[in-house]
């Protein structure tokens, strides 16, 4: 209950009640309401600035989850891109070389999407740049996979028309992978075991026990069989189509010069003859007279995982065995 206010009337020398006019009462009411509204606005503004509503908290959680999923998606797309790059590299430098087909040009593989802006409808979103970037990457990957798929269709037709050629290409390991030891010295510059300097290693050394069977890696004819300084007991097979293979440091022969062999036939056995520091097979592959990396041809009897493991072993810059 409001307190009654009095004032001292000097003329009547009495205390009299204060009577407010309607105008004053209205002005006081307006002032009170205005003050309350100002304070309310300030409190609400501070609450919006420093406190999150339940809906805002939920939206922030969803944004954090979307950001996490976006990062995961980017990581997966990066891995897929690496796989596609590997497929393209093997297609151009191995499969198309084998079948004597022209490699697919970079212009075709990396062709963009010309014409109108394909992503214009995404520009007005708050996270438009992220959406455009992701969509564009997916489009590029789709295009690359399409081109690669068409390339494999073309190679499939070449395989059917060149069955004899396929049987002649050196496409398996010369030693059973179950007999191989972990030690492998690959193609490229390696430390020579005797001279202790880096020299070009023209093949791949596969460590295995003496007497381990050595297999012809493709159909062909034995054009050389004998002993050569450095290589010891060796066999050279001419597979035709510009391919030949060399097998060195054998303990003994099974195939003879002039003999026709098929892929998988035993031609000799692992030894330690010639300039060798331990039992192993030194294996070389030639294409049109030029030495090439044998690892590029182990695609007939190795799974992708096995091939990757062997590639990592062969890529180590260690000391060769010969």
From TrEMBL:
Transmembrane segments: 29-51
Domain M23ase beta-sheet core: 199-294
Protein name, per record: M23 family metallopeptidase
Gene3D superfamilies reported for this sequence: Glucose Permease (Domain IIA)
Keywords, alphabetical: Coiled coil, Hydrolase, Membrane, Transmembrane, Transmembrane helix
Superkingdom of source: Bacteria
Entry-linked Pfam families: Peptidase_M23
EC number: 3.4.24.-
GO molecular function: hydrolase activity
Stretches of the chain forming a coiled coil according to its record: 56-90
